[in-house]
Amino acid sequence: MTENGAPGVLIDVLRVFCGPDGRHGNALGVVREGSALPDEAARQALAKELGFSETVFVDDPERGAVDIYTPGLRLPFAGHPLVGAAWLLDIDVLELAVGDVFARQDGEFTWVTARPEWAPPRTLRQYASAAEVEALDVPEPGEWVYAWGWEDEAAGRVRARAFPGRGDGIDEDEATGAAALLLTAQLGRALNITQGKGSQLLTAPGPDDTIELGGRVRLERILPS
């Protein structure tokens, strides 16, 4: 049992936005029995102890009501936790305070539809080439930076890295759905993003200024709380 956990609660550890070979992806903790940790302080403590970039607490699996935390704060919206939760719960709608997020399965990909204005502010910083992005060092804590450059502009292929700048132990985020939404909204086109060590995120503009965000998900392990 983790120090801040609840007896008998299991934590599904997923990898979200895996590459074509099934590797990489961003680790995500999902607490299916969110009612076992009903208060915000207990959830924040567990998210900090687990140390994933985000942890999801499922408040109602049938309605898809979920609550998202980083190691340092609660988030109203985040991309990779929602793709992971949609895959794990196998439902069509996820309920958030900001609005409903629609989900679908398409072969090996899980997709969610969201609005870019739900995403937290990010600094989108373009570099002249993918090689420049790859060569970047982790910056000092400060602003949240999504560094990106074209691998193949005609094909919509992007190389990206994400630096949260929070000082909470997450120096680089392996795969960041919210930032991908913002970049897609800025560029106004579908993107195929390689982020981090080899994660893959797909995006596509949808109707009414929505954006679809898709990726592969796999179950890595199950942890006792």
TrEMBL record:
Pfam families: PhzC-PhzF
Annotated Gene3D superfamilies: Diaminopimelate Epimerase, Chain A, domain 1
InterPro entries: Phenazine_PhzF-like
Name of the protein in its database record: PhzF family phenazine biosynthesis protein
